Amino acid sequence: MTTRAVPAAAAARPLAVVGDYVRLTKPRIISLLLVTTAGAMFVAAAGVPDGWLLVWTMIGGYLAAGGANAINHYVDRDIDGRMSRTTERPVVAGRVPPARALAFGVALGALSALVLGLAANWLTAALALLGLVLYVGLYTLWLKRTSVHNIAIGGSAGAVPPLVGWAAVTGEVGLSAWLLFAIVFYWTPPHFWALALLLRRDYAAAGVPMLPVVAGDRETKRQILLWTVVMVAVTLLPVASGAAGAFYLVAALVLGGIFLVLAALLARAPELEWARATFHYSLLYLALVFVALVIDAA
Question: Given a cut of 50, is residue 283 above it in pLDDT?
């Protein structure tokens, strides 16, 4: 019995190491970014884009975002150790050495540029690297620890994937691509601030000036509602520009209406009972908005 357990444990160790490196890329977060990338490709193609181009753009996009996230693990290892939800991350827990996490992230970023440059075009590669630089440099290294506007400005990094998808299909970035960028940009603050309300104590313990820590719950709720109103208005702009049609218009109004109701309930509630529902719906909302764009284009 013992002789069987030893080989089994030895075989499990490499799998655990691979699992930790996959966790460095934050695959759950990336999955939503890839939905926005693919959605932009369908809209840019006015239908179904080339299959191989779609596949390689998804791979390249994953590598770029995964590289940014791995570098984020390296940079934030000090504050991750002070927040309960992040203490088991591979670098903080000591399962991946910090230097290796950094090298892994840089390697993924370089590989993403190569994949996207060869499979699509070099503008696409440059935009993917821009997203990495914005996330690491603008958000993680600068704004996250110094400004209450960290999410409002730093959220631009998460809005780059639609530009990547658009450029992969067309070789350029036009007005419609920037409108898709704007949807994700204005979605980010209400999405993240709803989560920050739930994690206010964690951010306070780590010294991160998220809006609920600096301005309090009441002001954060008000800002979530205001940004949601603007976000819903922005989602209608692709229809005005001619990039989307009637199906998307109806979907955007219905999905946005639900988001507005949740944000209003959160703003009026004395406690945080609607924060979790708002956060989880925000994830579904962004995915469905871009799925509606895909259906409308196809």
Answer: yes
